[in-house]
Design a protein that fits this description.
Layout (H helix, E strand, L loop, with lengths): L2 H18 L3 H15 L3 H13 L8 H14 L3 H14 L4 H13 L3 H14 L4 H13 L3 H14 L4 H13 L3 H14 L4 H13 L3 H14 L4 H17 L3 H14 L4 H13 L3 H14 L4 H14 L2 H14 L4 H14 L2 H14 L4 H14 L2 H14 L4 H13 L5 H8 L9 H7 L5 H8 L4 H21 L3 H14 L5 H15 L4
Helix pairs in contact: 1-2, 1-4, 2-3, 3-4, 4-5, 4-6, 5-6, 6-7, 6-8, 7-8, 8-9, 9-10, 10-11, 10-12, 11-12, 12-13, 13-14, 14-15, 14-16, 15-16, 16-17, 16-18, 17-18, 18-19, 19-20, 20-21, 20-30, 21-22, 22-23, 22-24, 22-30, 23-24, 24-25, 27-28, 28-29, 29-30
Length: about 525
């Protein structure tokens, strides 16, 4: 319900009553009640309307209008049942009172009685087809019921009847956004802002739409404006800070993102999304203890959130506390069954623990749930590889390659798996490599297997890029140089390089999990 539209109609009601009041005293009460309502003194306004309704001088024709006005103030004062009672009485006295039907519909809407609200608003529109408030609130019901096309139709009718109706443009923007039509949403928010340059909800939600279309600069500008306009509204300020933090996170400005998520939590200590997001920042920046603390707090706030358990499990996983991560991933799966990413995540923890059978089982489940995802298929192949089932690994990588023949990792792992199964086929590797981007990592690893580049050149190339990228590339270089040595039966060199990979690889990388299995096979004399 729109409070500002509400007040405009109230004023008309008050004036209608004032014009027909029978005595000077009642006229004074009507004027005083309207003034009290305007300044937000709803208690005083209600008392004055009640005084008028108790007066014997009140004409019968004016009684439903006085009831309507008092009911409208009850609505403003969040006394929904009393408001509905007044509208009931007004309608019983004046059965074609369109405004009373509309406002009773608003009362039902605010008490989540959508069926009754829709009936009243439809009746108000039938009695008064050009009543913008009725169309607007009918649109709200459609919006809440996720009937988005019908909601947009009602908001269009509202602004056609009253082009100054700011809230209708705004709600139409929300409906477009829920449909995924973000450019249309932006245009509708533009229209709301053109009519009221201080209407902060339109700035905030336009920021969301800009974020969704990838225009992060405009999103930040809108959030900054919304924060200035919404000062004093703690709950909504928290939402805006959280939203701006998401944009800073997308820009990899983790310091500013962290600051905004903290500001949101300071305003609303139980704001789940901000707590979860702050935990994610700590996780991404390697502050695992703080991440665990924040995700634990998120679980306290929302114990049935799979995302909170997943976040804490990921922090445990990154910290190397594998058993704790498995417990949390398992809990998340109980809350969110058939989630392929959770099976994948738990499978990684089983891989870290060296429990390849359970890892394979989880990866197979993730592939069953999402059979067209090459990444899940690759992890399944790597789990087979870690277990030493190189033929199954090769068959799995072939499946990945069919889905994504331009994926260099599928080409790479297929070659290694077939080689470890006894079929070193450089010709196949060379043919598959022709389809790949020739200047993008990890093509250099493939060139190394083909004998087209040296280990020195490969190690030099791995040190390029951002620190995180360098660490991952150095891990892959050590591991694949070790695999190359294995394929060429240089076991001493392979052992040295795979040990190095096991030390330098980040805990979340498959190479870190597979290297110990390869070393164990070397120790046992099982190198193929």
């Amino acid at each position: 319900m729109s409070r500002y539209r509400f007040l405009g109609l109230l004023l008309c009601g008050a004036l209608a009553f004032l014009c027909s009041a029978a005595s000077a005293g009642l006229r004074q009460d009507a004027a005083a009640a309207d003034a009290a309502r305007v300044r937000g003194d709803y208690g005083m306004a209600i008392r004055l309307y009640s005084h008028m309704l108790a007066s014997k001088n009140l004409k019968a024709a004016d009684r439903p209008i006085a009831l309507f006005n008092r009911g409208s103030v009850y609505l403003l004062n969040h006394e929904i049942e009393r408001a509905i009672q007044d509208f009931d009485k007004a309608i019983s006295m004046k059965p074609r009172f369109a405004e009373a039907y509309a406002y009773r519909g608003m009362g039902y809407l605010r008490s989540n009685q959508f069926g009754k609200a829709a009936q009243d608003l439809d009746h108000a529109i039938e009695l008064k087809p050009n009543f913008p408030d009725a169309h607007y609130n009918r649109g709200l019901i459609y919006l809440l019921k996720n009937h988005l096309e019908r909601a947009i139709e009602q908001f269009n009718k509202t602004v056609a009847l009253d082009p100054s109706y700011t809230e209708a443009y705004y709600k139409r923007g929300l409906a477009y956004a829920l449909k995924g039509q973000f450019q249309l949403a932006i245009k509708s928010y533009d229209s709301a802002i053109e009519r009221d340059g201080k209407y902060w909800p339109a700035f905030s939600d336009r920021g969301v739409a800009y974020y969704m279309v990838g225009d992060l600069k405009k999103a930040l500008k809108d959030y900054n404006t919304a924060l200035q306009l919404a000062r004093g509204d703690k709950s909504n300020l928290a939402i805006i800070y959280n939203r701006r933090g998401v944009v800073y996170r997308a820009l990899n400005d983790y310091d500013k993102a962290r600051g905004d998520f903290k500001a949101a939590i300071d305003l609303d200590p139980d704001y789940f999304n901000a707590i979860l997001n702050l935990g994610g920042i700590y996780l991404n920046t390697g502050q695992y203890e703080k991440a665990i603390h924040m995700f634990s707090k998120a679980i306290d706030v929302k114990p049935d959130s799979a995302d909170a358990f997943k976040g804490r499990a990921s922090a445990y996983q990154a910290k190397g506390e594998v058993d704790a991560s498995i417990v949390d991933f398992s809990h998340a799966l109980r809350l969110k069954e058939n989630a392929p990413d959770l099976y994948y995540d738990r499978g990684l923890s089983y891989m870290q623990r060296g429990d390849y059978e359970r890892a394979i089982k989880d990866f197979r489940t993730s592939v069953r749930l999402k059979p067209e995802d090459p990444f899940f298929i690759r992890l399944l192949g790597q789990a087979y590889f870690a277990k030493g089932n190189f033929k199954k690994a090769a068959a799995t990588f072939e499946r990945e390659l069919k889905l994504s023949d331009e994926d260099p990792y599928a080409v790479l792992w297929l070659y290694i798996a077939r080689g470890r199964a006894g079929d070193v086929d450089r010709r196949m590797l060379a043919e598959n490599a022709k389809k790949l981007e020739q200047k993008k990592w990890p093509i250099q690893l493939i060139h190394y297997y083909l004998g087209e580049t040296t280990s020195t050149s490969l190690e030099r190339y791995s040190k390029l890029g951002e620190p995180k990228e360098q660490k991952e590339n150095e891990c892959q270089v050590a591991f694949h140089m070790g695999e190359y040595a294995l394929l060429n039966r240089s076991q001493r060199k392979a052992k040295r390089l795979l040990k190095h990979a096991g030390k330098i690889c980040p805990t979340s990388m498959p190479e870190r999990m597979i290297a110990p299995a390869e070393l164990r096979r070397l120790k046992e004399g099982k190198n193929n």
